[in-house]
Specification:
The protein is of the alpha+beta class. It has a single domain, classed as Outer membrane efflux proteins (OEP) (Up-down Bundle), CATH 1.20.1600. It has twelve helices and six strands.
Length: 460
């Protein structure tokens, strides 16, 4: 009995000590932000913490208002999204859930105290039992390690979600700016086509143009009006997609401004040494999959440890009957008569092999996505450069020569108008090629797990 009560006292002390474990102030958010911020190039919070009260909300609103006071650049758009996207904010708070599970796993289960009073035959009996769950005490260290890995995995997944939002925002910003630029250019083309249609009408009245020539100009003007409407629809849709990612509503959603045009094409594309290995090493979803496999392996070990000991409780008993006190102890042990735990072990082993294959497939996908994204990035750069250096300059040269010949009465107005249409097509093609390049760069960054490296393996 003495040893039993010593054990009970020791267990009570362990319980007291485990109860001293406390939650961190930010639920691991600072660690996750430390992973994501270098990869996105933007801060994930204001003053290093998630908004919890009105003061934090006002500080966040002040930062966002400052960003929106000027035309919104791509980096500023990413910053606003990381601070204000509510779906991402919800992901941040999942860290608190995972940390709570980790702290809980390190604590013993509360002891159970049973009290029983009975009477009969003129006698009164009392039974008092204090029970501790030995299984939870034995497996607590392993459970803590498992939940620790799960917590680390959650940090990686939350940081990866921030990277996804950043990449989506960059793509949406490129799409919105390009759509607005194309819509503005479509209006210019429509205005020119309207002037051509009016000229055709006057020349028709003067008897210089046929009805067919006039109809052609009117049809072209009608087509440009339709293209303006189509471009404006695309611009509205692209802006609203960006607005959703930014988490804006009300006046802010209507008032924020975008640049008039996309950034210019850089002097040269990035030369990356080994995009496949970079993706496998740097992508957070691969790192999270590795931790998931380790977590599953640890769970399998725990299942094997407890396959024969599912319920094991130790209790100190004190009974009093008729004024006579008796002491003792009791142990409850589940007897593996019908269930020997083989099904649980088989399930754990199957889950582990499933996790291994998912990790392998994730690595295969990451390598393929890296190759595809890099090839698209290089091809998009070459196409945009071709438009910039060859197509657009040649169209301008042709336009200048056409205008000179028209002024010298060596060319007809039909040829002048036809050349203007060809030039408009070339300019629109360049805008689209530039959009594809910046989108391809955002896709490549997402495939490699963050912003493009600036030194290792890269030549400017």
């Amino acid at each position: 009995m003495t040893s039993l009560y010593k054990f009970a006292s020791g267990a009570g002390l362990a319980l007291l000590l485990s109860g001293c474990a406390s939650l961190s102030g930010d639920g691991g958010f600072s660690t996750a932000a430390g992973i994501s911020e270098p990869r996105t190039g933007a801060r994930a919070s204001v003053e290093g913490r998630l908004p919890r009260n009105e003061d934090d909300a006002r500080a966040l609103a002040a930062v966002i208002s400052k960003k929106l006071a000027q035309p919104l650049a791509a980096d500023d758009a990413v910053q606003v999204a990381l601070l204000n996207n509510r779906g991402l904010q919800a992901s941040y708070w999942s860290l608190g859930v995972a940390e709570a599970d980790l702290v809980q796993a390190g604590r013993m289960q509360n002891p159970v105290f049973d009290f029983k009073r009975s009477h009969g035959g003129g006698e009164v009996g009392y039974e008092r039992t204090l029970t501790f769950n030995l299984v939870s005490l034995i497996t607590a260290p392993m459970a803590s390690r498992i939940e620790g890995r799960r917590f680390e995995q959650t940090k990686l997944l939350v940081a990866n979600e921030a990277l996804k939002v950043a990449a989506d925002t960059r793509r949406a910003w490129v799409e919105a700016v390009a759509a607005t630029q194309l819509a503005d250019y479509a209006k210019q083309v429509e205005a020119s086509a309207q002037a051509s249609a009016e000229l055709a009408g006057r020349m028709r009245k003067a008897g210089n143009w046929s009805a067919l020539d006039q109809a052609r100009e009117q049809a072209y003007h009608a087509q440009t009006v339709a293209e303006v409407t189509h471009a404006q629809k695309a611009a509205v849709a692209a802006r609203e997609k960006l607005t959703r990612l930014l988490g804006l509503s009300g006046e802010q959603a209507a008032a924020y401004r975008l640049p008039d045009h996309l950034p210019d094409l850089p002097a040269a594309p990035r030369e990356l040494a080994d995009v496949e290995q970079t993706a496998v090493n740097e992508r957070l979803d691969i790192q999270a999959a590795r931790l998931d496999t380790e977590h599953t392996a640890s769970t399998l070990g725990l299942t094997r440890t407890t396959r024969f000991v599912n319920v094991l409780d130790l209790g100190a008993v004190r009974n009093t009957e008729g004024g006579t006190a008796t002491r003792g102890y009791e142990i409850s042990l589940e007897i593996p008569l019908f269930d020997w735990g083989s099904a649980r072990v088989a399930r754990a082993e199957a889950t582990y092999m499933q996790s291994v294959n998912l990790l392998t497939q994730a690595a295969v996908d990451a390598r393929s996505e890296a190759r595809e994204s890099y090839a698209d990035y290089r091809a998009s750069y070459e196409l945009a450069r071709h438009y910039r250096d060859h197509v657009v300059p040649l169209r301008k040269q042709i336009s200048d020569q056409t205008l000179l010949r028209y002024n010298g009465m060596l060319m007809s107005v039909f040829e002048l108008l036809a050349d203007a249409r060809e030039q408009a097509t070339a300019v629109s093609g360049y805008i689209n090629a530039l959009k594809d390049y910046w989108t391809a760069q955002a896709n490549l960054e997402a495939a490699l797990g963050g912003r493009l490296p600036t030194n290792t393996g890269v030549k400017p």
